[in-house]
Amino acid sequence: MTTILAIETSCDETSVAIVKNRQVLSNIVKSQINIHSFYGGVVPEIASRQHLEIINQAIAQAFSEVDLDWPDIDGIGATCAPGLVGALLVGITAAKTLAIVHEKPFVGVHHLEGHIYATYLSQPELRPPFLCLLVSGGHTSLIYVKDCGVYETLGQTKDDAAGEAFDKVARLLKLGYPGGPIIDKLAAEGNRSAFSLPEGKISLPEGGYHPYDCSFSGLKTAVLRLIQKLETEGHELLPESSIIRDIAASFQETVAKGLTKRAIACALDYGLNTIAIGGGVAANSGLRQNLSTAASKNNLQVLFPPLKFCTDNAAMIGCAAADHLSRGHISSLNLGASSRMAIKDVMELYSAMR
């Protein structure tokens, strides 16, 4: 049983967790949403400073919730890519320092791999191969999970990620930030068939469309044009109005159906009977409903992590780090932060074998 102290600071959540294999012993998450909502999005420099102020407190709190001390910890894990470089450096520096002081191995973790491992926290019996639909504020991908550290991206967005689309549409509707939870709440009270919105498709050079790639930029523009048309017609688009709820419901349904269609097709084409969902948009009720219904019709299993593990958290990072460390994968103390790194390159994070 491998016990990891893990740190996650890739964006606007400061999180520290203690994880034993796939069991969460403690998971502290300090969100910065209230700070960044004032600016309508994450401000990288402010995020970094907040991580710096909170990290020591979060580490102490993680230990306060368990009957463990440093001799019980087998390794220190930290998100090192992708993400905001300044924010990542806070977590990486803290993790390396702890690794040196307490003579523990350091394990760098790819953020997207962490989201894949979030499903393991509630489904510890899950084993590859399976398909992961990863949908978050910065990433939307269909990933073939073959083994720990072995991944193939089969489909992805060519512009905005799903979470970005929710944020941008919420901004167009003057609903505030972050957009996902607000739109989800309003959509529950709206008519999802009220407006016909385009599903973003990616053309292939030889004709037709890519079966798994997606696009949300055109959908966002379509919502903008719809808002302009309604305003021209004299409609007052107030946040509490029924027409705003209908726009939210129609937009959410379009996103959910598009993602569902691609995920189901991909799983069937590759002979994978399980689809695991990861990332913040995995909490969206429309996506959960559409995917669950479609999976049932096609005799597929769809797994959603608990809501607390959908958004960024150190528990999922610890789970991934524990698996890597148990296989002898250790990162160099010279490992730096990277704003961009493809998930297929995960094994480049491990320069030493135990």
Structure commentary:
The protein starts with a strand and ends with a strand. 50% of the residues are buried. The radius of gyration is 21 Å and the shape is globular. The model has no long low-confidence stretch (mean pLDDT 95). The protein contains 10 helices and 12 strands. With 354 residues, the protein is α/β, with parallel strands linked by helices. A 5-stranded mixed sheet has the order 3-2-1-4-5, sandwiched between helices. A 5-stranded mixed sheet has the order 8-7-6-9-10, with helices on both faces. It has a two-stranded antiparallel ribbon with strand order 11-12.
**Radius of gyration using CA atoms only:** 21 Å
Number of strands: 12
The proportion of residues in beta strands is: 15-25%
Distance between the termini: 16 Å
Most strands sheet: 5 strands, mixed
Encode the helix/strand succession as letters. Answer: EEEHHEHEHEEEHHHHEHEHEE
- Strand order in the largest sheet: 3-2-1-4-5
Question: Pairing-aware structural class of the strands and helices?
Answer: alpha/beta
Helix content: 40-55%
Give the overall shape, derived from the CA principal axes: globular
Oligomer state equals single chain
Mean pLDDT: 95
- Residue ranges: pLDDT <50 for 5 or more in a row? none
DSSP summary: helix tally: 10
